[in-house]
């Protein structure tokens, strides 16, 4: 059975107005067009719907019985096909899953959570760890928002550059390099290093830059998170090269020293990524706005 939703709108107008002319004016169609719609409704339902009583039209018992249901059904259809874009944050109840780089969670997560709780107390945030392999959670709607240095290449994933940060060196207090007036690239390469890689990679863009200068460095270990790598540096002469924004809490809480990186490297970008299905979702757009602000406050400067 093929149904025409236009007939539902026509039936609602006919029952509300009680006449073909009134229903036609309400829906901005001609009277003959409304008469044809009434004929189709009669054939579909097997009921006359409106019958003539003198100069007026009277609804049949069936029409009276379904009037409220028809009106409610039309309202529901309109809600599906033309949903309201208004967002009531005070009553919004929703759980968002965010997969952010661990340093971004530490730096910007608290500000985001505070802003969300203040504006929409019914919203919950789930921060999940990054995977060691590329995963399609954004496509599968298992993750709502990502934030890291990777720009997705998939055409259905949106990516917005919300900032950038440069690399610096982090060492313990009293490290031999802290007693030098400047850290030369040769001294940097001669030291022992720990890389940060959730995949366990021992090399990165730093090694590529050193290779162009004919230098190599000795990487003795890799750590899955910056927090873990900083603990290595805290108790040894190992060097860690990390985004500058990460070092704010490290210097204050761990007693570490930040030194300039003696290499010309482009700043590390920070991308906010989501699936295109959420482009026009009001709640998701609201969260993205708060995330941009929180990431900027955390130290990612554009």
**Would you state the CATH class of the largest domain?**
Alpha Beta
Number of discrete helical segments: 10
What fold name goes in the CATH topology slot of the largest domain? D-Maltodextrin-Binding Protein, domain 2
Question: What is the spatial order of strands in the main beta sheet?
Answer: 4-3-5-12-6
Question: CATH superfamily of the largest domain, called what?
Answer: Periplasmic binding protein-like II
> Structural class of the secondary elements?
alpha/beta
Radius of gyration: 32 Å
Question: What global shape is seen?
Answer: rod-shaped
Q: What's the β-strand tally?
A: 12
Tell me the series of helices and strands, N- to C-terminal: HHHEEHEHEEEEHEHEHEHEEH
Helix content: 40-55%
Which spans have pLDDT < 50 for at least 5 consecutive residues? none
Whole-number mean pLDDT: 88
Characterization of the model:
Strands 4-3-5-12-6 form a five-stranded mixed sheet, covered by helices on one side. The protein has a five-stranded mixed sheet with strand order 9-8-10-7-11. Strands 1-2 form a two-stranded antiparallel sheet. Helix 1 (5-17) crosses helix 4 and helix 2 (20-27) crosses helix 3 (31-45). Helix content is 40%, strand content 23%. It has ten helices and twelve strands. The chain has helices at 5-17, 20-27, 31-45, 61-81, 102-119, 185-190, 205-212, 226-234, 247-254, 282-297, and strands at residues 50-53, 56-59, 94-100, 123-128, 145-148, 157-165, 167-172, 192-196, 218-223, 239-243, 256-260, 268-275. The model has no long low-confidence stretch (mean pLDDT 88). With 302 residues, it is an alpha/beta fold. The chain folds into three domains: 5-81, Arc Repressor Mutant, subunit A (Orthogonal Bundle), CATH 1.10.10; 94-164 and 270-297, Periplasmic binding protein-like II (D-Maltodextrin-Binding Protein, domain 2), CATH 3.40.190; 167-260, Periplasmic binding protein-like II (D-Maltodextrin-Binding Protein, domain 2, 3-Layer(aba) Sandwich). Strand 8 (192-196), helix 7 (205-212) and strand 9 form a beta-alpha-beta unit.
């Amino acid at each position: 059975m093929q149904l025409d939703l236009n007939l539902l709108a026509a039936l609602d107008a006919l029952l509300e107005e009680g006449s073909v002319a009134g229903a036609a004016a309400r829906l901005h169609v001609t009277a003959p067009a409304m008469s044809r719609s009434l004929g189709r409704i009669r054939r579909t339902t097997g009921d006359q719907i409106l019958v003539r009583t003198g100069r007026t039209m009277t609804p049949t018992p069936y029409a009276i019985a379904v009037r409220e249901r028809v009106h409610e059904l039309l309202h529901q259809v309109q809600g599906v096909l033309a949903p309201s874009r208004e967002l009531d944050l005070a009553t919004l109840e929703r759980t968002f899953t965010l997969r952010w780089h661990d340093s971004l969670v530490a730096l910007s997560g608290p500000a985001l959570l505070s802003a969300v709780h203040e504006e929409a107390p019914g919203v919950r945030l789930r921060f999940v760890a990054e995977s060691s392999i590329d995963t399609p959670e954004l496509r599968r709607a298992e993750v709502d928002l990502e934030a890291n240095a990777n720009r997705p290449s998939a055409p259905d994933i949106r990516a917005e550059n919300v900032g950038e940060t440069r690399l610096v060196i982090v060492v313990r207090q009293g490290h031999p390099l802290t007693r030098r007036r400047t850290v030369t690239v040769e001294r940097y390469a001669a030291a022992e290093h720990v890389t940060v890689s959730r995949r366990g990679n021992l090399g990165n863009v730093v090694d590529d830059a050193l290779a162009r200068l004919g230098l190599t460095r000795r990487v003795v270990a890799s750590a899955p998170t910056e927090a873990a790598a900083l603990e290595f540096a805290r108790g040894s002469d190992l060097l860690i090269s990390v985004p500058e924004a990460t070092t704010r809490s490290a210097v204050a809480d761990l007693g570490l020293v930040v030194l300039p990186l003696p290499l010309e490297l482009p700043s590390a970008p920070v991308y906010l990524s989501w699936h295109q299905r959420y482009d026009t979702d009001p709640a998701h757009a609201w969260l993205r706005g708060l995330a941009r602000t929180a990431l900027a406050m955390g130290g990612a400067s554009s």
